[in-house]
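> Could you send the F-box domain-containing protein prediction when you get a chance?

Sure thing. Input:
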Amino acid sequence: MDETAKRHCTGEVAGGSGGEKGGESSDGDFEPSMGRFTDHIIIDVLEKMDLEYLCTAACVSPTFNSAVAYRLPFVSSSDLSGFYPNEETLKHVVCRVPGAKSLTIECLQMRNDSSIIKILGEHIEDLSLLKCTHLSYDILRAIGERSLLIEFAGCDAPELFKRKLAEMLQKVPLLEQTDARLFVLWLDAVRKIPLFNLRSLSLVLDLISDDLLITVVHSLPHLVELDLEDRPFTLSSVGDLTNIGLQALKFCECLIALSIVRSKMNCPASFTRMDKKGMFHVSEGCKRLESVKLGGFAKVTEDGYSSILYSCRNLKKFELLTSPLLSDSVIDNMTGVARSIVELRLSSCSLLTSEALEHLSSFCKLEVLDTSGCERIGDQAPFYISKVTTLTRLNLAKARITDVGLALLGAGDLPIVQLCIRKCEKVTDKGIKSLFHADRKICKTLSVLDIGYIPKITDAAIFTIATAAKALTDLSLRFCNGVTDAAVQMLMDRPNHNSSQLQMLDLCSCRGLSAVAILLPLPLYAFHRLRWLGIGLTDIVSKRGIFSAICEARPRLVVCGVCCDFGCCDGW
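Output:
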């Protein structure tokens, strides 16, 4: 295990006697009062709750526990992402939800294949296995006829992988691979399988070429979803994707979701051998598209993107990343699909200004808006955004908005669940206060908030957020140097306060925190729902004793001592 992996420690959310005690009322007569409600009423209420809240309700009283036991067999899906169960815990959870057809598991603590194989009943149709660093390729053969998303780390035995993969591919309708070296093996196995009917393919590669795309579409004519991302190591365009490659997409007549993205992870590369003609090919051959994501197309002008908007009348999701030639008129060109678009993401498009959003109110179904990295977006944008009453997720990272903009956004009284204003450097505590002013809808709905990299944020803003945001579960304060120990103690010390609901807290590089910002020993109620804590580049990490003590006190809590963003996504 390398040094980075060693710093991703795991630990437990407080439970046991502390959890039992929390379920009692101060006068001891909570349980008798439950007798006022019939089992039918209680079950009817519980049927409207998701799995996490059902488990919380079960701890409240024997009556609720009994009602939840009745409800669990009817739960259709179980998502354990964000948790790191061991084999025994996983077995127990799956036994409690025998009707679940969809199952998502974080496999970081699974030490062998049997951990997964033992819980694979015939009822499970959709299986997602994340962070499978300890599992072998034998797991592929055991999976059988299920939709599958699986993350492997590397390819130590190519021939073994190819054989196991071929056995699985005879039935599986969906596959996601995240290792470029496995793609050739995958394709080789696919060609030998009769009646192969893969419908969804996701690949992360070193380079997307014409040959690769043409081979994919000819080998897999029944594709419904195609997701390709490459991460070049050089700026060379030799062998790069061109308009010819995109023209081949016309053979995928069933395609409804297309994503082609060039990442800048390894170098600042972009697709330089494609222009608007490539987009014309997509618009002519893929008119059934409902979801489009395109990133890194440096030479595609607005005409190219507009052709897709005019042709794909069922479009629900439209995302462009790093499109330097995209101008404000892009929204005007969406008149034909404005009533169907649910998600609109225009990220790192340097020419976009606030005026691009002037007619946003015509998007009557819009729930997600992302203009992150569009640095010319200013205070007028929140005014336009405030007219979209259906909006629940908003990302304005790196915008030039000020406290005035946040006040305008707050005045719109939108039911925002996720909000990111990271790197909006002109925002202060005053802006945060105006956002949550007068018990607006956002006070009841906001669950995820990112205010990282804002130098003028201090403890006062944290007090405002913790007091006003009643549903907050994820809070990012990374690189907020004005945050001190007092804010952290406030988040820890109130077991019945809003802040006690926090599940993810990012304090990375909060230089105002001392080594004792998290006092030891931890009280039973402190951070009792927290799943992930980021403390990289703080003095807390430098004091290894404190760091280790936190991990020991909460064995199921992931404590990140490096600089990962929410959730330690790599997991290795």
